[in-house]
Amino acid sequence: MTRFSKRMLICLLAVLCSGAWAQEEETEHSNALFRYKNDRGHLVVDQSIPPAAAARGYEIITDTGRVLKEVPPAPKGEDAVRYAEQLRREAELAEWDARLKRRFSSVKDIESAKKRALTELRGNLSILQANLSGVSAQLEDQQRRAGIMERNGTEVSEAVQTNIHQLEAELVEIRKQIRAREQEIDQRAARYDRDIERFREIKS
C-alpha cells in the first residue's frame, strides 16, 4: 500500500466512523410519508397526496416504512388534502415526541448528548484538517522538486508528476470532506437545539 492510499484510508475511516456514530446519535424526528394507491391501484409512497387518493384512505409511515397511522377514506377534494397534511404533521410530532421521551429524561440530557456529538464531529474535523496540512506540505515539496528539475533544464520525472497529480486530487477530496463535516456540525447543533425546544414544550 502506497503512502497516498494509506493516507486516503485514514480519511475514509474517519468519515465512516463519524457517519456511523452520527447515525447512532440521530435524535430528530423522521419525516412522515404518505402510502396510498393511485388511480391504477399501484402502491405509492410520497410526501404529498392527491385528493382522490386521500378520499380512498391511506397510511402515514416513517421513512423506514413503519406505519404511524392508518387513515380511512376521508371527504373528497381539498378538504381531504388539508386533513391528510394535518394528520401527517401530527404523526410526525407524535413520533418525534416518543423518540425524545425514550432517549432523554431532561433538557440537561439533551445538552450533554449535543456536547458529545459535537465533540466527536470536531475531533473528526481536526483529523481531516491535519491530513490537509500534511498533504499540502507534501505537494509543496513535490512542486519544489519539479521546479528544480525545470531550472536545471531537465524534464520533470514521471514519478514527480504522478505524485503532484495524486496530491492535488487528495487535497480536493479532503477539502470536500472538511466542508461536509463543517456543515454537519452546524446541522447537528441546530438539530439538538430543536430537540431541546420541543422537549421543553412537551414537558410543559
TrEMBL record:
Signal peptide: 1-22
Keywords: Coiled coil, Signal
Segments forming a coiled coil: 125-184
Domain of life: Bacteria
Name recorded for this polypeptide: DUF4124 domain-containing protein
Organism: Gilvimarinus algae
Classification of source organism: Bacteria, Pseudomonadati, Pseudomonadota, Gammaproteobacteria, Cellvibrionales
